[in-house]
Amino acid sequence: MPAVTGIKDATAIVGIGQTSFAKHLPEDERTLACRAVLAALDDAGIAPGEVDALASYTMEETDEVELAKAVGFGDLTFFSKIGFGGGGSCATVAHLAAAIAAGQATVGVAWRSRKRGSGPRPWTNTAVQLPTPAQWTRPFGLLRPADEIAMLARRYLHEYGATRDHLFNVALACRNRANQNPAAVMYERPLTREMYMSSRWISEPLCLYDNCLETDGALACVIVSSERARDCRRAPVYVHSAAQGLPAQHHGMVNYWNDDPLTGPAWAAARHLWKHADITPSDVDVAQIYDAFTPLVPLSLEGYGFCGRGEGGAFTEGGALETGGRLPLNTGGGGLSEAYVHGFNLINEGVKQLRGTSTAQVPGAATCLVTAGEGVPTSALLLRN
Amino acid sequence: MLTPVTDADGAPFWRYAAQGELRVQACTDCGEPRFPPRPCCPHCQSFASEWRRMSGRGRIWSYVVPHPPLLPDYAAQAPYNVILVELAEAPRIRMVGNLVSGPGAPLNSLSPDRVRIGARVQVVFDGDGLPQWVLERP
Q1: How many domains does the structure of chain B reveal?
Q2: Where is each Thiolase C-terminal domain found (chain A) (predicted)?
Q3: Rounded mean pLDDT of chain A?
Q4: Does residue B4 form part of some domain?
């Protein structure tokens, strides 16, 4: 028996694809999914008939059967769906990397197609069906993810002296990068501190600009073995390390019932991620950190080890998250300002950085951390070129 | 308004609440309280549990003030507070609720500037058996 070597650098992302992003796109989710997947395969120079593995989110509405049939995949030997909404993004790549490294498949496609911009919003629907865990939160008017995260944010600000200016630093870094990215929904919409501080509340202490965009769009990427990657059209971006994280006594986005609710799934994912990596947080050139809400960024900066407990707010000071800063962040604009497609745009942006093709390119970027939703069972990737 | 959708594990909580009692599930074998309710004890894996009566005293650990867009019933009362209460006897049990001016009062019955982290609160119950919280020193 050969020794188990794990997934370190065993696979690479060789193709990325996306549709346009907008508040309203006329095509349906299935059509958008097909377009993104075919764009990614074309980018890789791989024919659809070679695809034998798929991974997406459990919330993905286009299932494997429909996608495979529509775009003409070959026989599939591995398919996987990851739960917990935005926590699933990086795990789609991780599952394919593991399957390919283990010999269960050869060409994997991960994708996410979503019409959230023009689709229904559950909290405007009186006939909303409550899942039973919500019996402890929703009757009291803690209705939306923004409310659930705002509860943690208020405590975080109180406990560690972080301020709304720190949250603004996050929103601004994302918006500044979106202003450089013609594909971003907020491309021509600069943000100022005055706009941020005077904007309407969504759930105090979170205002409009602390919340991600509602977007229509789809993205996909193609994963193959590192050996196969050498023959592809594009330079490979290696999956150096990958992890999922569901910490002890966790309870979804209302993670209020463990010893320290401010220590979330990022911490669990980070322990595995770094343990299996040759690099440390100080070696990361650029980061794509899941930003459905601004407070997730300081929490994640702590969880993934870029700073100590309670230092995530202060870390954002002095332009640290901007181009040229200590840790350039969400260089396509992120969920806050490029598009909110459950974090999949962060994966593709990480690939663009390591190819040297980002619209906000970090010179010489060789390593990139990509994370999925903090607050829910999550996942993360370390990519390198 | 949304009413709790209970399951077998959670139903006793709501039955006691309807009687005006705040009780939490606790392990009969090792004594550890746990919340939300579930089939077995995460500390000792025992399936034996009991419902332990709490004093109903606690402190506000955090709070939010939601604004629309919200479900229509909630939008009509917005902005209102939602608080997270750490129970005096079991600080790791933090219950989501609302700080109100008195039993049965609406979600927005207390000005948001009366809500602060660390404030001592006491449980009360509205007419439908939903736990609510009032300031210990109004």
Answers
A1: 1
A2: 259-377
A3: 95
A4: no
